[in-house]
Every structure is written in structure tokens, then in C-alpha cells.
Amino acid sequence: MSKIIGEGTQPLICTPLVGRNQEIVLAELANVLEKKPDIIEWRADFFEAIANTDEVVALANTIKEIAGDLTIIFTIRSIREGGQTIPLSDSEAMELNAAICTNTSVEYVDCELSNLPEHFQQLCKVARENSTKIIASFHNFNCTPSKESLEERFTQAEEYGADVAKVAVMPKTLEDVLTLLSATLEAKNKLKIPVISMSMGELGAVTRLFGGVFGSTVSFAVGQSSSAPGQVPIEDLNTVFHIVKKSMGM
Ligand SMILES: O=C1C[C@@](O)(C(=O)O)C[C@@H](O)[C@@H]1O
């Protein structure tokens, strides 16, 4: 059975695939499977053939088939939120997300909150009809907005009808890291849907290791390649999660 985000006491470990073609993606997949993550995120914005819907759908199905019981997240990260430059407009990217919901058994599709609300809600509708879940995400690679602003992003995700709310921001100080953790705890207590959060970069790495204590349900870790600054190797996360479980019971 594939794991569901928000279930269980420990955060799930997700590792990204960032290959630019099928051969590289599948080689990465074979490599990361040995490290036994809970979730694989396919960052399709790195994929050169992203404009070819049939090719993307076929590769998503192959990843799912090879990954077996592992949960899959399909993500097109936009350039404005730290992703790659892609030859698709926002609405074309949404159509591709919808095609993934309709034509694959990928469990989760990531959708940025910065999309038009009507596009976001249309995708949620298609996702629901196909039993796919939507992760509503917000990223800021430059700074950490105020705690109130982060809380608004979490709340907005729930209001938009997403199944999971995710916030990733860049700290400049340790106070920023605390802001992210504090907003995460608040959201965990307030929201009905699970939350994922991280403070990026070296300063924020502590949130990838201990964010679960404050309510984050997934930690993104390096299997083969990193998809954002500050991600730690899966092996290190396993060690830390083991210690947290032993000492805190979670
Ligand atoms: O949203 C996220 C989180 C992330 O940016 C990180 O900081 O680990 C990595 C991305 O691949 C993923 O889609």
C-alpha cells in the first residue's frame, strides 16, 4: 500500500527525480529506490520533453510501475517559484497536471497557490474525479515572509480545496527559521489537512531534520540529486528520525 501524507507519526521521506530525459530519470529512480524513501517526487519541470503530454504521461506511468508501492508526487515547479524554465504557459502546465490526474495512478500532483484560483479549483475538480490528491504549494527562494503571511498561505491551501498544504521559504536569520516552524505548528493545530514545510538553505536544514516535531508531515531529502538548497541525504534523515522516535516517541 502506498503511504498517505499525514498518516503515521513520523514524517515521510520524499526524494526528487530531476533528470532531463527518460534514461536519466529511470537511472535516478533505480538508484534512489535502493535508499527506500517513502515518496518519489518527479520534478517534471527538469524534463526536456515536458511539452509532449503523451511522453510525460507514459513516463509517469513507468515511474509508478517501477516504484511499486511507493507514493508518487508529480510536480511542475514554475520559474517564479524556483523551478526550471519550461516551454509551457501556466494554463498549459495546468492541462498537463490534469492529464496526469486522468491518465495515471500517480497519487499526488503539486499545484502552486500562485495559479489563478479558477485554474486551481478546476484542477482540484479533475483530481477529485480521478482520486488524485492535490498538494497546494507556496515557495519563496528569497526570504521568509511574516508568520501571519505564512499562516495565510496554509489556510488558503485548505480553502482552495487542496488535500495537503506546503510552504517552502528561504531564511536569512535563525529568527526566520523559527517563524517558519511557528507558522507550521499553528497550521498543524488549525487545519484539517496535513501540512508540509521547510526553511531552505543551510540555515534552514534543521527544519528538514526536526520539522516533524512541529507538524511537517514530509521531509524532502537527497537520494541522488537535490532539488532545493539545504536538502540532506536520506541516510542522515533516517538516523535523525530514529533518534527523535526513540527520545520523543514520534
Ligand atoms: O516544494 C518542494 C520542496 C523543495 O523546494 C524543498 O525545499 O525541499 C523541493 C521541491 O522539489 C519540492 O517540490
From TrEMBL:
Pfam families: DHquinase_I. The active site is at residues 139, 166. CDD domains: DHQase_I. The keyword Amino-acid biosynthesis applies. The keyword Mitochondrion does not apply. Pathway: Metabolic intermediate biosynthesis; chorismate biosynthesis; chorismate from D-erythrose 4-phosphate and phosphoenolpyruvate: step 3/7. 3-dehydroquinate binds at residues 41-43, 77, 208, 227, 231. GO terms for biological process: 3,4-dihydroxybenzoate biosynthetic process; amino acid biosynthetic process; aromatic amino acid family biosynthetic process; chorismate biosynthetic process. Involved in the third step of the chorismate pathway, which leads to the biosynthesis of aromatic amino acids. Catalyzes the cis-dehydration of 3-dehydroquinate (DHQ) and introduces the first double bond of the aromatic ring to yield 3-dehydroshikimate. Homodimer. HAMAP family: AroD. PANTHER family: 3-DEHYDROQUINATE DEHYDRATASE. Belongs to the type-I 3-dehydroquinase family. This is 3-dehydroquinate dehydratase. It comes from Pelosinus fermentans B4. The gene is aroD.
